[in-house]
């Protein structure tokens, strides 16, 4: 039996079609659930599930194609070959979908690249206890970030201290500490690498930015634990927004494929905490 004929027989079988439909239905259900869910934390969990199902689907498709071609010359292909290809592809896809994020997250090369992008030398980061280390980045401009890849580190640009008041700076640091508590640096790194590896998959180009945006909302909620802190964080965002506008102009509004959250939306959510 030729390879094309084997693929035709495979994709006409109930098992292969059921597996394909199950992945599709799961993605649709997760998408609908995401739309009707309001909190950033449950939304993040839904997005991680979407990634897992998406990776599982592509692994299933790839495994199915390879196994069909490999088993196409077997006389009993239509009897046992299709069932074997379906079973191996489904279980292989599920395993790869579950492990892909973990493997990518703990990649040493990826960790080094991430720290270099933040403008921090790994040698300077030596603290390993629970208290985060405050590091000033050599990266120019207004910049605040956090990383838990090499200890808990909060990274601030030098100019940030000059622009913000002490209360505003404290609110920004609290926001970054919230990112550390949520292990956002590892999850975002895994999401970014998955999206780059799955360059052929359009869904990942929307899921990855959504993970970044929901992470910002969750960190805002945690940092604005009371009206005073919420007002300080909102003030810091307004100050940074005004300075960035003066330096670079208004720019284009972020879209669904942007990792940036619109400033107006963050300010509106924070205003509900200190004025509601």
Model description:
- By secondary structure, this protein is mostly helical.
- It has two domains: 3-105, no CATH class; 109-274, no CATH class.
- The protein contains eleven helices and three strands.
- The chain has helices spanning 3-11, 14-36, 40-71, 77-105, 108-117, 158-163, 166-181, 184-197, 204-223, 227-248, 263-274, and strands at 133-137, 144-147, 153-157.
- The chain has a three-stranded mixed β-sheet with strand order 1-3-2.
- A hairpin with a 5-residue loop joins strand 2 and strand 3 (153-157).
- Helix 1 (3-11) crosses helix 3 (40-71) and helix 3 (40-71) packs across helix 4.
- The model is unreliable at 123-128 (pLDDT under 50).
- N-to-C series of helices and strands: HHHHHEEEHHHHHH
Overall mean pLDDT stands at 79
Bin the strand percentage.
5-15%
Give the termini distance in whole angstroms.
70 Å
How many helices? 11
- Would you count the extended β strands for me? 3
Main β-sheet: number of strands, strand sense, barrel status?
3 strands, mixed
Strand arrangement across the biggest beta sheet: 1-3-2
Query: Number of domains in the coordinates?
Result: 2
Radius of gyration: 23 Å
Shape: elongated
Low-pLDDT residue intervals, each spanning 5 or more residues: 123-128
Give helix % range: 55-70%
How would you classify the helix and strand content by structural class? mainly alpha
Can you summarize this structure?
Helix content is 70%, strand content 5%. With 276 residues, the chain is mainly alpha-helical.
Question: Could you name the key traits of this structure?
Answer:
276 residues, mainly alpha, 2 domains, three-stranded mixed sheet, 11 helices, elongated
